């Protein structure tokens, strides 16, 4: 509170001069208002703040100077006038006349001015311009908002990016999983082993448990593969399925999926469900022990029928199946079903091929007095096609005369098998009528040309064997087939050149014929080109290796020779043989 | 009685709860420097991985939203229909309520419910 005591001053003029000096010197806005709120005195600093001359203030109300926004200040002045109490640190944001549209910030204090008698003379005001400080604070707040907001959005973006990365990694691991499954299935047609591997690789990507069940024709449900990260759990499951075998006519999630062909997802496994499934208390205890939380069963469907089911379960991990899990499981089940079906077809076809192949070769070789005879046959590739190589050894109508054949029918498969059968049986029949090997090849040539169902041809080496008391006479005829090799008892190796055209290729073929003499201990080897034709740049490499092998087998039995030659031929191949291998050895007993 | 949430519902609920926690921190950081009625750019609380958008709410609107732990503010159209329902529409944002099976998750994740 300020009291005005004129007696303490030298004079009123001096007091005014002092006041003017103070008003001018202080770098703050100073004003003196009448109790009604009119400007009575203003210093230059405040006039500058308002953008008006000092004189333009005097006698005018605050609103007349500052406009409507001045009413707030008028309110302060009136409050001080009424209460006679000062107001300090009042923050004012106001538009000023000298700065249209601009906002200035003031920090102001208001105090009553009383005369010595305590009567109100007016209200004084001290105003500090704090616009720059306010603007700096506003700018700081703006920057803070921007920074904090940007940080929040960056955190959110990071969270979403991490989520996206997890999704991408999950998707990549799923794709890798399916690729691995595809590789496993392509590598082998042994589907129980393959699917066991598939089940193991499905854990834990697709579940804590993975079981592949096959519905047998008699209604039994056989667990083909089972996997869990803990082998003891797998044993527990095996024990469970042995003690409590399941059948297709018993209600269960697996049978439901197989019978309906629909995916079954059990998001949770209530206790009642286990109680209904259990056959006795022990069964229930073991079922509880599996700790199943959620189960997904996908039927193994093929176009013809549903083969079984792929069952996945989450247990101790506490995970739940996502839509992506279901989608991946459906893909896995489709691949598994196709693999099983393909493998079954492959097995059936292999069985047919093996049966047919066996019918094209002698079930056993005859025992020929004075001779050892041994043979080996190995089909090319996956043994799923009937090969075109053949051999045969049989007696003629002449006493003590035998025939040994080896040949190679062009192509593979059923047509080649039919031609092989025709060739063998035609030569067997022809040998009953003709002694000459070449003549019998002519008979075969006519028979093959007469068969209009095929354009295939054959190579044949025909050997007429006449074993005697001290060796054997042999007459060989060739129809486009490699000549025999003779390994003498002393280790010399001879190649017999028997020229002749392919059998069944032309109407007027030429079949060369050679007479040979085998002494005791001599061995004659008949073979097909699968033994020597290797995929190397050197076309004679196989022939040289065969010769080396045979030289190393001097004195060996016919059985040893065919096995060693077969082994050599397979060993020279890069992987399984690409061509059939047939070897027939005839050795004169020493 | 609500059933156990699927993995997908759980994942979406947890994601949205994490965005809400970010917004809570944003609000706390800005409360002292924000004027009444001033709009703030909160993070869209939707469950879409690719979303990078903001929703504008003033502090009063945000507090009204946060009064219910199962409510989230998202950009209109960002709702995932089988896991949440739009319960309020405002200029620039909608309020969704989580599906009942996700209530326990978002309530558990709500730090304001602690204590």
Describe this structure in words.
The complex is a heterodimer of chains A (590) and B (115). Chain A is α+β, with helices and mostly antiparallel strands. Chain A is built from 15 helices and 22 strands. In chain A, strands 1, 2, 3, 4, 5 and 6 form a six-stranded mixed beta sheet that branches. A six-stranded antiparallel beta sheet of chain A has the order 9-8-7-12-11-10, with helices on both faces. In chain A, a hairpin with a 6-residue loop joins strand 14 and strand 15. The model of chain A has no long low-confidence stretch (mean pLDDT 88). Chain B is of the alpha+beta class. Chain B has three helices and five strands; from the N terminus they run H-E-E-H-E-E-E-H. Chain B has helices spanning 7-30, 59-66, 103-108, and strands at 39-43, 54-58, 71-74, 84-90, 93-98. The model of chain B has no long low-confidence stretch (mean pLDDT 90). Chains A and B meet through helix 5 of A and helix 1 and strand 1 of B.
Query: How far apart, in Å, are the first and last alpha carbons of chain B?
Result: 26 Å
**Helix content, binned percent of chain A:** 40-55%
Strand order of the largest sheet of chain B: 3-5-4
Order of helices and strands of chain B: HEEHEEEH
Tell me the total number of β-strands of chain A: 22
Q: What's the N-to-C terminus distance of chain A?
A: 148 Å
Radius of gyration of chain B: 14 Å
The number of helical runs of chain A is 15
Oligomer: heterodimer
Give the DSSP E fraction of chain B (strand runs of 2 or more residues).
15-25%
Rounded average pLDDT of chain B: 90
What is the molecular shape of chain B? globular
């Amino acid at each position: 509170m300020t009291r005005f005591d004129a007696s303490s001053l030298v004079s009123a003029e001096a007091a005014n001069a002092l006041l003017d000096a103070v008003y001018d010197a202080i770098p703050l806005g100073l004003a003196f208002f009448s109790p009604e709120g009119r400007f009575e005195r203003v210093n230059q600093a405040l006039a500058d703040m308002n953008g008006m001359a000092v004189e333009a203030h005097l006698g005018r109300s605050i609103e007349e100077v500052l406009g409507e926004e001045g009413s707030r200040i008028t309110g302060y002045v009136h409050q001080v006038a009424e209460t006679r109490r000062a107001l300090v640190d009042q923050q004012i944001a106001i538009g000023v006349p000298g700065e249209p549209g601009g906002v200035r910030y003031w920090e102001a204090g208001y105090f009553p001015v009383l005369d010595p008698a305590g009567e109100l003379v007016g209200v004084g005001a001290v105003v500090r311009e704090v616009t720059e400080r306010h603007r700096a604070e506003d700018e700081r707040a703006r920057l803070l908002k921007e920074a904090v907001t940007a940080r929040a959005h960056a955190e959110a973006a990071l969270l979403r990016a991490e989520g996206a990365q997890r999704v991408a990694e999950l998707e990549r691991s799923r794709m890798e999983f399916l690729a691995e499954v595809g590789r496993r299935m392509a590598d082998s047609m042994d589907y129980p082993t393959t699917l066991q591997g598939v089940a193991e690789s499905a854990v834990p990507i697709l579940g804590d448990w993975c079981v592949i069940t096959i519905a047998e024709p008699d209604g039994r449900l056989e667990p083909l593969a089972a996997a869990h990260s803990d082998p003891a759990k797998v044993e527990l499951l095996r024990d469970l399925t042995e003690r409590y075998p399941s059948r297709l006519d018993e209600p269960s999630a697996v049978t439901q999926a197989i019978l309906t062909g629909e995916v079954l997802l059990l998001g949770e496994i209530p206790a009642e469900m286990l109680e209904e499934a259990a056959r006795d208390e022990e069964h229930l205890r073991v079922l509880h022990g599996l700790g199943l939380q959620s189960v997904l069963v996908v039927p193994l469907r093929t176009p013809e029928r549903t083969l079984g089911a792929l069952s996945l379960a989450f247990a101790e991990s506490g995970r739940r199946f996502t839509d992506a899990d279901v989608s991946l499981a459906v893909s896995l089940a489709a691949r598994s079903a196709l693999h099983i079906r393909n493998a079954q077809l492959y097995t059936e076809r292999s069985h047919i091929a093996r049966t047919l192949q066996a019918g094209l070769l002698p079930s056993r070789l005859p025992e020929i007095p004075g001779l050892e005879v041994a043979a080996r046959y190995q089909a090319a590739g996956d043994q799923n096609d009937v090969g075109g190589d053949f051999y045969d050894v049989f007696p003629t109508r002449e006493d003590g005369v035998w025939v040994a054949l080896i040949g190679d029918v062009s192509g593979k498969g059923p047509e080649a098998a039919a031609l092989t059968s025709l060739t063998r049986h035609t030569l067997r029949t022809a040998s009953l009528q003709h002694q000459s090997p070449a003549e019998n090849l002519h008979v075969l040539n006519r028979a093959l040309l007469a068969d209009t169902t095929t354009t295939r041809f054959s190579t044949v080496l025909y050997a007429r064997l006449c074993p005697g008391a001290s060796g054997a006479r042999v007459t060989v005829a060739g129809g486009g087939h490699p000549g025999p090799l003779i390994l003498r008892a002393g280790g010399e190796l001879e190649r017999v050149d028997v020229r002749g055209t392919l059998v069944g290729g032309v109407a007027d073929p030429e079949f060369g014929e050679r007479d040979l003499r085998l002494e005791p201990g001599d061995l004659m080897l008949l073979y097909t080109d699968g033994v020597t034709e290797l995929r190397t740049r050197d076309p004679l490499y196989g022939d040289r290796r065969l010769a080396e092998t045979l030289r190393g087998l001097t004195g060996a039995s016919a059985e040893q020779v065919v096995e060693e030659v077969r082994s050599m031929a397979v060993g020279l191949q890069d992987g399984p043989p690409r061509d059939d291998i047939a070897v027939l050895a005839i050795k004169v007993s020493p | 009685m609500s059933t156990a949430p699927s993995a997908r519902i759980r994942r979406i609920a947890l994601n949205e709860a994490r965005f809400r926690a970010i917004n809570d921190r944003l609000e706390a950081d800005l409360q002292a420097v924000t004027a009444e009625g001033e709009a703030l750019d909160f993070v869209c609380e939707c469950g879409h991985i690719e979303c990078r958008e903001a929703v504008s709410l003033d502090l009063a609107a945000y507090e009204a939203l946060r009064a219910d732990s199962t409510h989230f503010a998202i950009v209109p159209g960002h709702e995932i229909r089988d896991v949440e329902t739009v319960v309020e529409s405002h200029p620039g944002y909608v309020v969704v309520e989580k599906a009942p099976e996700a209530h326990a998750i978002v309530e558990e994740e709500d730090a304001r419910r602690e204590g």
